[in-house]
Every structure is written in C-alpha cells, then in structure tokens.
Amino acid sequence: NATITLQEAFNGTSIDINFTAPVVCPVCHGSGAEPGSKPEVCPDCGGTGTVRRQQGFFVVENTCKRCGGSGEINKSPCHECKGNGKINKNRTLTVKIPAGVQDGSRIRVAGEGEAGTKGGRNGDLYVFITVKQDNFFTRDGSDLLCEVPILVTTAILGGEIGVKLIEGGEAVVKVPEGTKCQTKFRLKGKGMPILNSGGRRGDLILNIRIDIPKNLSAEDKKTVEDLDKSLQKSNSGDGFFKIQSSSFAL
User: Fold this and answer.
1) Which helix (H) or strand (E) holds 148?
2) Is the pLDDT of residue 13 over 90?
3) Which residues, in sequence order, are CB contacts of 193 under 8 Å at separation 6+?
4) How far apart are alpha carbons 130 and 108 in whole angstroms?
5) Quick one: how far is CA 5 from the chain centroid?
6) Is the distance from CB of 3 to CB of 130 less than 8 angstroms?
7) What is the pLDDT of residues 33-71, one digit of tens each?
C-alpha cells in the first residue's frame, strides 16, 4: 500500500515501495538442488508431475504429491533455500504514480512480483493507492469541490473573488449581485486530470458560503442599522436581517 496527497495525485509522482518477495535462490539458481548435485526423476510420477488413478470407468489425474508437479526430486536440497529454489528478500522499488490516480486504485508493475519457478516468468507487483483527504478540496471523481466564504456585502453588491487552484495560483471569479448562500460556480477544466484522456481535466465546483460578521464596531453597526432602516422602507417592512435570512438561506 502507498499513501499520497491529493496534490501528488494531481501532479503524478514517484514513490519508493519497500516490500519482501521471493527471489531466485542465489546459491542453486532456482533448481532447489545443492550445488554439484542434480535433481532426479520423481519415481512416483516418472517425471510427468501427475499421477493417474483408475476409478471405475474413469481415469483421474492428480498432481504428484511427492514432487509437487515438477517431475523431479532433490535428494540433496540446497542448504540456502531448503530445496524451494527461492528465498525471501527485502526489496525497494521506485514506482511511478500517474497524474489523476484515484483513491483505491491498483497499479500493476509487471515482472516485479514473486520469482517464477525453475526459470519461469516472474509474477507482477500490485500497489494499492490511498489518497489522503485535503484540507481545502474535496474530490468527486475527476471534479474538485471547495467551499468559498464571501462577505455579505459582496453577496449583496457583487464583486470579484480570488479562488485557490490545485495547480497553484488563483482564478478570479465574478460574483453577481444578490448571490445566495449555497450558490455554485463551475470552473471548467480546473479539476483533476482524467487518466488516459490525453490531458483532459474535470471541473472545479465552488460552493458559496456567506460570512455574517460578528463583533461589529460601533461605526459599522451604525452603517448596518442605517441600511436596515432604508431597506425597511423600500421592502414593505421587511427588515434587513429578515431579508438576509430568507434570501441567503443562512
């Protein structure tokens, strides 16, 4: 298993994997026999690796128990691997993680798994990826979601805000006047890379949160009170904070 950050999943990265896997015995070179000796033909299966038994009208063929299907036995097993032909070895391998990899993905590294038997092909290594949660972005497939706080005055009057991008820097987003809480803006192509798509990316979805200021100064409080009185006259008695509650669903 390998754990990476969302930023590393966006950019792609290389990580060192430490693991233990069977490798070809360096003493007998996989034969399982002590150097200087040779394996002998298994007397139970005659070197075929299988044993046949008659059961009524049927012939049942099973793997030879004595030689394990290899057709050979070692009367002088290798002292290093005890006749197995393999030994466990600690290894370190650098694995390339592609950009856009998702949490729970499985990466196959061909030929880096368990050593093959008696010169056979090596198995493959599978690396399972865990992507840590990010403090700012939440991932949804190839899309990224984030919550963006804006001032109540920006929500009322409109304006421009800077939004952090995962690749670095900011995007300038125009907020129209009268923007409500939970309004969503979609920035096309600013999400995560899509695997094997030729460089295409998902979207960045902004969820607007309106921050109501606390502990106002006397001057600021007076300004809000004057605005409240003005709005009461122009909105048939609906007070400022009532309008805030209904319009922005706070």
Assistant:
1) strand 143-151
2) yes
3) 10, 12, 99, 100, 142, 199, 200, 201
4) 15
5) 9
6) yes
7) 888 887 788 898 988 889 988 777 788 899 998 887 888
